[in-house]
Amino acid sequence: MNKPQILIVEDDPAIGNLIATTLETQNYQYHRAKTGAGAVMDALTFRPDVMLLDLGLPDMDGVDIIKKVRTWSNLPIIVVSARSEDGDKVAALDAGADDYLTKPFSVDELLARLRVALRRVRYDHERTREESSVYENGGLKIDYAAGCAYRDGEEVHLTPIEYKLLCLLAKNTGKVLTHNYILNEVWGSPTASDTPSLRVFMATLRKKLEADPGHPQYIQTHIGVGYRMIQQKQEDETP
């Protein structure tokens, strides 16, 4: 596989240099943009594998950049921002961001989030090359044509709502889905009063899907924000 191409969108020189140095040590190639307009243009011409995006840019809010990019691309976007409120995270994720990392951040966490995004890129490429009605992720398997789910070869008996939730998460593997997005897609009603019901269904889904629901392997909770289907590592994949 070619070296991953990363677009760094950051107007703070110190943070931009930190991210660039981190990518260099991991053998990633990168390009840097310091404005929103530059980010959109570079996303079009540079065609990166992942965008690392600061929200507080001098000419454009990062959420607007996400919306612009999403009109023509599914490029994974990881927000790296000092905005730490749940409302800011939800707004960015609802606009189409894949993940959200709050400043200050550790280098190890940044690289971990980046690996998740790159696994999604590889997964999307594989799906493009070989369209299939079967989803496989580690020991999890979904046969969309038959409407069945399996864990380690054993069928998992799910309610219609649980199955819809599982399929929605699976089709967005590696991406954080907000409560509102899930409620709208599954129930057609993104009202806050429905969030407790969503939590109940997610809990029952976990009990059926996870070997140890207290330490989930597949469905990750982002408290106050939403949920993510974790892309399992392949046996031949290096960290």
UniProtKB/TrEMBL annotation:
Pfam family membership, one: Response_reg
UniProt DNA-binding residue ranges: 132-231
SMART domains, alphabetized: REC, Trans_reg_C
Modified residues (4-aspartylphosphate): 54
Transmembrane segments: none
Domain of life of the source: Bacteria
Keywords annotated in UniProt: DNA-binding, Phosphoprotein, Transcription, Transcription regulation
CDD domains, sorted: REC_OmpR_KdpE-like, trans_reg_C
Start and end residues of each Response regulatory domain: 5-118
Limits of the OmpR/PhoB-type domain: 132-231
Known function: May play the central regulatory role in sporulation. It may be an element of the effector pathway responsible for the activation of sporulation genes in response to nutritional stress. Spo0A may act in concert with spo0H (a sigma factor) to control the expression of some genes that are critical to the sporulation process.
Name used for this protein in its record: Stage 0 sporulation protein A homolog
The species this protein was found in: Yanshouia hominis
